[in-house]
């Protein structure tokens, strides 16, 4: 996923960009409000999320958020040291999708990015003609009926296999951390469940007859590699 990082501090931006890149994000760094707005032309320029710092040198971050929201529906996460409730409410009223207060935990920030991205995917699916379905090459995932097919042939999956595939398919190419997958699919902590995740990934690769569909990112987690149609 492409991510626009709006941050005037080059040292902060460099460190955060490195972390995001390790988790599968293609990061573009904008150092001012105007640079950010230019990067979003035309029609969002293919970005999946905007990470917007409010302390910008040329414009107030709230003003930038309002301008972004007028141009595009891309999810915006505000990042700021302003922790008071009124500031958060103001940001959300301007159209921000989430609000992260500095200093923040990197894992929490990544989880919030994935969360707003998934919400956008669900909203797009609900508003489209092909409601409730994800198509990835020859793979089709019917969310309401929990049915998966490859080239028109139905593949029988267990409940957890379907949940795992649907989670990864919501953001093809994005790396999902092992801890995040365990939390969202199994609703538990990482301890003692790691082997279960590996078994389910192997089973999906076998049942779908696509060994390369789910890629292991060593030391991090997994991502879905969208197959050709």
Written overview of the protein:
The strands form 3 sheets. Strands 2-1-3-4-5 form a 5-stranded parallel sheet, sandwiched between helices. Strands 6-7-8-9 form a 4-stranded antiparallel sheet, with helices on one face. It is elongated and about 55 Å long. Helix 2 packs parallel to helix 3 and helix 6 packs across helix 7. By secondary structure, it is an alpha/beta fold. It is 42% helix and 21% strand. It has 8 helices and 12 strands. Strand 8 and strand 9 (153-155) form a beta hairpin.
How would you summarize this macromolecular structure in one to three sentences?
The protein has 229 residues and is an alpha/beta fold. Helix content is 42%, strand content 21%. It has 8 helices and 12 strands.
Q: Topology of this structure?
A:
Elements: E1 2-6, H1 10-22, E2 26-30, H2 33-39, E3 49-53, H3 61-71, E4 76-80, H4 85-93, E5 98-101, H5 106-127, E6 133-136, E7 139-142, E8 147-150, E9 153-155, H6 159-169, E10 176-177, H7 178-186, H8 194-207, E11 214-217, E12 221-224
Parallel strand pairs: 1-2, 1-3, 3-4, 4-5
Antiparallel strand pairs: 6-7, 7-8, 8-9, 10-12, 11-12
Helix pairs in contact: 2-3, 6-7, 6-8
Modified residues (4-aspartylphosphate): 53
InterPro entries: CheY-like_superfamily, OmpR/PhoB-type_DNA-bd, Sig_transdc_resp-reg_receiver, WalR-like, WH-like_DNA-bd_sf
Domain OmpR/PhoB-type: 131-226
Strand order of the largest sheet: 2-1-3-4-5
Structural class: alpha/beta
The helix/strand order is EHEHEHEHEHEEEEHEHHEE
**Radius of gyration from the alpha-carbon trace, in angstroms:** 19 Å
Unreliable stretches covering 5 or more consecutive residues: 121-130
Give the distance, in angstroms, between the N- and C-terminal Cα atoms: 20 Å
C-alpha geometry? elongated
**Overall mean pLDDT score?**
84
Query: Multimeric state of these chains?
Result: single chain
Task: Kindly estimate the percentage of residues that lie in beta strands according to DSSP.
Answer: 15-25%
Helical residues, percent:
40-55%
């Amino acid at each position: 996923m492409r991510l626009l990082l709006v941050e005037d501090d080059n040292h902060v931006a460099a460190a955060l960009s490195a972390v995001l890149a390790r988790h599968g994000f293609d990061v573009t760094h904008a150092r001012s409000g105007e640079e950010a707005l230019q990067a979003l032309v035309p029609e969002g320029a293919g970005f999946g999320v905007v990470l917007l710092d409010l302390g910008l040198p040329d414009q107030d971050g709230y003003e930038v958020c309002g301008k972004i929201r007028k141009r595009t529906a891309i999810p915006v996460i505000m990042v700021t040291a302003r922790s008071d409730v009124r500031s958060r409410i103001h940001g959300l009223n301007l159209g921000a999708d989430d609000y992260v207060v500095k200093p923040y935990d990197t894992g929490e920030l990544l989880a919030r990015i994935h969360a707003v991205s998934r919400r956008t995917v669900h909203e797009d699916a609900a508003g489209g003609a092909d409601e409730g379905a994800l198509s990835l090459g020859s793979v089709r995932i019917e969310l309401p009926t929990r049915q998966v097919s490859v080239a028109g042939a139905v593949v029988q999956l267990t409940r957890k296999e379907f949940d795992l595939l649907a989670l990864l398919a919501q953001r093809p190419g994005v790396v999902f951390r092992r801890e995040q997958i365990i939390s969202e699919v199994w609703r538990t902590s990482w301890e003692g469940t790691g082997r279960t995740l590996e078994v389910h990934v192997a089973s999906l690769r076998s049942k779908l007859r696509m060994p390369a569909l789910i890629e292991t990112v060593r030391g991090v987690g997994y991502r879905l590699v969208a197959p050709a149609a």
